């Protein structure tokens, strides 16, 4: 019988990055009383104290009857996204065809007996779904069918995200934090942001590149032979597509080659050819590789990235550490203003800020130009 | 941070429940965020390719706790030095299959796995059987593993308990975290008996009985029981698929509590070998209320059994005895 032993390398994932588990307590333990590691870094909406009696936060997941949502909603219900002291009301939206399946998801959420799940609102009605929400996870999008051109995909989704952007403006809380996952994620976020322009700050909107970052970190960790927890500040720039730019120029490995020392990834890897010709394409193509192996798209790892992105946004990032988020460009690094572009950011008190002054090599600059061009052309292809 | 590594085996790892369960384990929800794990994923040979994709996804999650992952179809390799064995894999019921056929097919599987556990797992290995018929499969594994204490074998009824708790919470309009000590007795089947009589609800004004909080004894005697018993089918009907995520959560809860202990005063339900408590005959695996400390469960004694409860216990016991007879007639 064949067997395969695979070495899985590690990164400090959400468990220690934002100190959610402070004191090593499992959230299922009813005795979890340790305070969060850095409560002053958290968004004011989030309760970080074990002694308070907090209001639940309303979180909408669109595409709630789908694969990614099936992994995601249980993670949210168990406290992974907002910490062990913040109850959640889950709003779940999908199309009418999926109503029965959605009912099944609600049954299973209830059957999970999650202490932090304060309620569910499962609906196919946009107004009900968006009413009063404070966090919006836009997982649902029109999927690409056989024979469909990218331009068709852009047009179908433009309608959905225009409607949902308007719903955010009309029904959601003013401070609603939006994460777009459904592809083409950056451009869908752009459309939603535009539709809500009169009412919601553009800083409320983001798209997911955290999965790409996690994939990149895992590959670097394996290449160098270190735990994933030690690899820091790998950045993903640009569009969540084949033109994304995984960049290790400013990344480091902690406690390498020995405890107490920090080494730049470039030095530790010591192989620019591998970085340019293998590493970057592998990260860019990982989604397809997972589909080929599973016969299904990434679900659990996507859900994990969604949780990581939003958790770091609302609970804050560690000092000196950056995460990748696609946000509306303010012109940093000469990226045209208004494009939804993935940057390295830090988060504090519920706000993200683009890390300034990072080194951009000529090689990376060419790639930034290419991904910028692609994003611009996606916007140009939108129906007026 | 604990330095020892736990060997945790999941069978049926390529399936639906496996997909949800594996990520719960590697995230630290099962054993706590300090416990490093060596994860062994077992399934039948044709399914092993699919697991490669799951492993790619685990890599893409960047979790700190997983030191090594092994993928295998060989029970000997899978169970070598196992600390925990979660037996999700079994023969599913196919159209036209009689219950007796299902029992017999699974008896063969669990005979092989029981022997492999006996010969290769640690003597301290704890076993949780999920694949249905869970109680009888656990019994088969147990009788084929005489080197491992009977107390180390269990089957999953935590899902039924979680479902029962949720129904009470919804009906009483309270948070599920405020509903305590709902028990499920007997077989993980349509004869399981959800029992609210020793439970309570923590309200701001103080503790209330379940009956007092729900204010509808007719519902408690009838609809509540039926809803919990038939919940599995209801989820299949809605999802067109079996419960996976909620099953994975229940598995996580069961093992978490077995490993780390239950909070003071809280009962949890586990299918375990009967020691004669409540006059349940020994020689079957039966869901009882337990408390857990230092990795050892203790059946809660002295709970009142009224006439209605006794009837329900008798029915589920009779079913388990007849399953045992069919399964052992090999």
UniProtKB/TrEMBL annotation, chain A:
Residues 209-380 form the Lactate/malate dehydrogenase C-terminal domain. The keyword Lipoprotein does not apply. Pfam families: Ldh_1_C (PF02866), Ldh_1_N (PF00056). Residues 58-196 form the Lactate/malate dehydrogenase N-terminal domain. Its EC number is 1.1.1.37. PROSITE patterns: MDH (PS00068). Gene3D superfamilies: Lactate dehydrogenase/glycoside hydrolase, family 4, C-terminal, NAD(P)-binding Rossmann-like Domain. The active site is at 240 (proton acceptor). InterPro entries: L-lactate/malate_DH, Lactate/malate_DH_C, Lactate/malate_DH_N, Lactate_DH/Glyco_Ohase_4_C, Malate_DH_AS, Malate_DH_type2, NAD(P)-bd_dom_sf. It comes from the Eukaryota. It catalyses: (S)-malate + NAD(+) = oxaloacetate + NADH + H(+). GO terms for molecular function: L-malate dehydrogenase (NAD+) activity. The keyword Lipid biosynthesis does not apply. NAD(+) binds at residues 94, 157, 181-183. Belongs to the LDH/MDH superfamily. MDH type 2 family. HAMAP family: Malate_dehydrog_2. Catalyzes the reversible oxidation of malate to oxaloacetate. This is Malate dehydrogenase. It comes from Cavenderia fasciculata (Slime mold).
UniProtKB/TrEMBL annotation, chain B:
One of its GO terms (biological process) is malate metabolic process. NAD(+) binds at residues 12-18, 43, 106, 130-132. InterPro entries: L-lactate/malate_DH, Lactate/malate_DH_C, Lactate/malate_DH_N, Lactate_DH/Glyco_Ohase_4_C, Malate_DH_AS, Malate_DH_NAD-dep_euk, Malate_DH_type2, NAD(P)-bd_dom_sf. It catalyses: (S)-malate + NAD(+) = oxaloacetate + NADH + H(+). The active site is at 188 (proton acceptor). It is an enzyme of class 1 (oxidoreductase). The keyword NAD applies. Its EC number is 1.1.1.37. Keywords: NAD, Oxidoreductase, Tricarboxylic acid cycle. GO terms for molecular function: L-malate dehydrogenase (NAD+) activity. Residues 157-328 form the Lactate/malate dehydrogenase C-terminal domain. Residues 7-153 form the Lactate/malate dehydrogenase N-terminal domain. Gene3D superfamilies: Lactate dehydrogenase/glycoside hydrolase, family 4, C-terminal, NAD(P)-binding Rossmann-like Domain. The keyword Transferase does not apply. Substrate binds at residues 93, 99, 132, 163. Belongs to the LDH/MDH superfamily. MDH type 2 family. Catalyzes the reversible oxidation of malate to oxaloacetate. This is Malate dehydrogenase. It comes from Cavenderia fasciculata (Slime mold).
């Amino acid at each position: 019988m064949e067997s395969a032993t695979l070495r899985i390398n590690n990164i400090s994932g959400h468990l220690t990055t934002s100190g959610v588990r402070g004191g090593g307590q499992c959230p299922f333990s009813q005795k979890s009383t340790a305070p969060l590691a850095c409560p002053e870094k958290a968004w004011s909406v989030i309760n970080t104290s074990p002694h308070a009696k907090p209001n639940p936060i309303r979180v909408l997941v669109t595409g709630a009857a789908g694969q990614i949502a099936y992994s995601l909603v249980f993670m949210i219900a168990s406290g992974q996204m907002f910490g062990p002291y913040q109850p959640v009301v889950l709003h779940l939206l999908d199309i009418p065809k999926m109503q029965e399946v959605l009912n099944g998801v609600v049954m299973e959420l209830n059957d999970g007996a999650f202490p932090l799940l304060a309620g569910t609102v499962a609906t196919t009605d946009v107004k009900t779904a968006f009413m009063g929400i404070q966090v919006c996870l836009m997982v649902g999008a029109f999927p690409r069918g056989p024979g469909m051109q990218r331009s068709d995909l852009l047009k179908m989704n433009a309608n959905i995200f225009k409607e949902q952007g308007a719903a955010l403006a009309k029904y959601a809380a003013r401070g609603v934090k939006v994460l777009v996952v459904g592809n083409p994620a950056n451009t869908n976020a752009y459309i939603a942001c535009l539709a809500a322009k009169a009412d919601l700050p553009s800083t409320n909107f983001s798209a997911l590149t955290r999965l790409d970052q996690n994939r990149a970190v895992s590959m670097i960790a394996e290449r160098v032979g270190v735990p994933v927890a030690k690899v820091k500040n790998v950045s993903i720039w640009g569009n969540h597509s084949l033109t994304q730019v995984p960049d290790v120029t400013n990344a480091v490995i902690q406690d390498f080659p020995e405890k107490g020392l920090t080494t730049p990834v470039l030095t530790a890897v010591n192989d620019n050819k591998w970085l340019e010709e293998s590493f970057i394409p592998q990260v860019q193509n990982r989604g397809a590789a997972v589909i080929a192996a599973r016969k299904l798209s990434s679900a659990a790892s996507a859900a994990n990235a969604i949780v990581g992105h939003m958790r770091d946004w609302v609970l804050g990032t560690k000092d000196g550490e950056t995460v990748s988020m696609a946000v509306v460009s303010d012109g940093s690094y000469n990226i045209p203003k208004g494009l939804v572009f993935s940057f390295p950011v830090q988060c504090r008190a519920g706000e993200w800020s683009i890390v300034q002054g990072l080194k951009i090599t000529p090689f990376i600059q060419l790639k930034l130009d290419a991904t910028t061009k692609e994003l611009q052309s996606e916007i140009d292809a939108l129906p007026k | 941070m604990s330095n020892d590594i736990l060997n945790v085996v999941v069978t049926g790892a390529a399936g639906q429940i496996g997909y949800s369960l594996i990520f719960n384990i590697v995230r630290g929800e099962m054993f706590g965020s300090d416990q490093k794990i060596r994860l062994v994923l077992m399934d039948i040979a044709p399914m092993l390719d699919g697991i490669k994709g799951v492993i790619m996804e685990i890599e893409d999650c960047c979790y700190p706790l997983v030191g090594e992952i092994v993928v295998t179809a060989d029970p000997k390799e899978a169970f070598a030095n196992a600390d925990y064995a979660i037996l999700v894999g079994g023969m599913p019921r196919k159209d036209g299959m009689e219950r007796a056929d299902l029992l017999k097919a699974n008896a063969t599987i669990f005979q092989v796995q029981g022997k492999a556990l006996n010969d290769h797992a640690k003597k301290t290995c704890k076993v949780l059987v999920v694949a249905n018929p869970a109680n009888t499969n656990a019994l088969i594994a147990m009788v084929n593993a005489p080197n491992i204490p009977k107390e180390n074998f269990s089957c999953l009824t935590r899902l039924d308990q979680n479902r029962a708790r949720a129904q009470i919470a919804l009906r009483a309009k309270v948070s599920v975290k405020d509903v305590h000590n709902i028990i499920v007795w007997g077989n993980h089947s349509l004869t399981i008996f959800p029992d609210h009589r020793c439970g309570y609800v923590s309200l701001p004004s103080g503790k209330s009985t379940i009956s007092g909080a729900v204010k509808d004894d007719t519902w408690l005697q009838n609809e509540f029981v039926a809803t919990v018993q038939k919940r599995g089918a209801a989820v299949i009907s809605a999802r067109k698929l079996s419960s996976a995520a909620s099953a994975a959560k229940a598995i996580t809860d069961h093992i978490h509590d077995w490993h780390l202990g239950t909070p003071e005063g809280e009962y949890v339900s586990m299918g375990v070998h009967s020691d004669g408590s409540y006059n349940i005959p020994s020689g079957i695996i039966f869901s009882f209320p337990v408390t857990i400390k230092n990795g050892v469960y203790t059946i809660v004694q002295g709970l009142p059994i009224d006439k209605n409860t006794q009837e329900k216990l008798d029915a589920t016991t009779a079913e388990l005895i007849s399953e045992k007879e069919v399964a052992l007639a090999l």
